[in-house]
UniProtKB/TrEMBL annotation:
One of its GO terms (molecular function) is oxidoreductase activity. This is Squalene-associated FAD-dependent desaturase. Gene3D superfamilies: FAD/NAD(P)-binding domain (3.50.50.60). SUPFAM superfamilies: FAD/NAD(P)-binding domain. It comes from the Bacteria. PANTHER family: BLR3003 PROTEIN, PROTOPORPHYRINOGEN OXIDASE. The lineage of its organism: Bacteria, Bacillati, Actinomycetota, Actinomycetes, Jatrophihabitantales.
Amino acid sequence: MTGTDTETDTETDTDGRVVVVGGGLAGIAAALHCADAGRPVTLYESRPRLGGMAFSFTRDGLSVDNGQHVFLRCCDAYRGLLDRLGVTERTTLQRRLDIAVLRPDGRSARLRRTAGVPAPAHLTPALLRYGLLSPVDRARAARAAVALRLLDAADPRLDARTLGDFLRHHGQNRATVDALWGVLATATLNLPPDDASLALAAKVFRTGVLDRAAAGDVGHAVAPLGDLHSIAARRALTAAGVDVRLAHHVTAVRAGAGPLAVTVRVRGTETTVHPASVVLAVPPRVACRTAPELAAVPAGRCARLGTSPIVNVHVHYDRRVTDLPFAAAVDSPVQWFFDRTESSGLAARRPGAQYLAVTVSAADDIIDTTSPVLQQRFVAELARLLPGAEQADVLDVFVTRERHATFRQSRGSGALRPTADSGLPGVWLAGAWTDTGWPDTMEGAVRSGITAARAVSEPTAAETMGNLA
């Protein structure tokens, strides 16, 4: 048999099985909740690991996260998944929101909520002391925050506007957008304010910052993401009875004429299975390629969702250059950096050294810049932000890129996001790109998986009538 030949076999469903295609957070959540509902589940993942876009890999013996994936206290679904996987203790969550914001000229500020003060007044003292803006700009920012809090993120009219347009309409100048609003918006929406959907921005700022005082407290993993989202997830899925099949590539899903059919390829052999239901928990472009019949139903509009890239620059120093666990930066190509010394294993391998990971969202302008250029640029920028970095020796520096990190959360994107119901019989959709009401985040991914699982588990009208008879 040549390398392009395939053998074909067929398996027919007899037990109401659910097939979940994709082992990211959406697929993991969908599989667990389907299993909880008593459905037999098979999860197919084309890669040899779980975790989707939130994963780790090994480089020179150290664990490297592909990106710096944070969550907030308001991310109830994702935090619930961490509990289910038994890894909550391998994350940390601030007791109260506290973000250091640095500038290359040495000036800095903190976005810190005041304990015991209800929203939205919990951020007033921090805004009044925010020295990166003039007193006049701080007052204008407070008024814009009040206006933003009055928006209804579910109003479809907001999706036709950008956050930048709204901010300018409410008196925000470029300095205020760059030094305040853009710090959070660009990181969460993976687009600059002038491009980002106002509807999604309203969701971010209202749910994450303005509506509840504690909602915006920042959490992140203190262990490699692979330990959380792959190793622990596979253990939990197996315990729930899910049949997890890694390195299995689903090449086609056929619905409509005839029984539901899923074609799976592994090591040159193709098998067609006929489950009762399918959850497509893959990116929109993959979903449309795998299930071409989506083009004939409204959900097929998701094919027009673009993507936005993220670039990460990883720097190992021979000594500690900052005591900050993470920080944002303004007036610098460095948007955020995170201390990954402990989670990577560098602390144990080389005591006293430090590993900082720089994250650049909305990285369209640099996604194709060569690694040597990016390495030189960001090492120099970190030295401008952190005086200790200028005296330190760089042990290693490398670049990772996610060209399709998120769907493009621009104005008009809301109309392209389908619900869990694909419109094809027996086929459901999951992923942070579906219509969760949230931006493309780990929280949105988990919520989408839960929603799809609930839809799969609901009895059909025919089944309900049959039970009543």
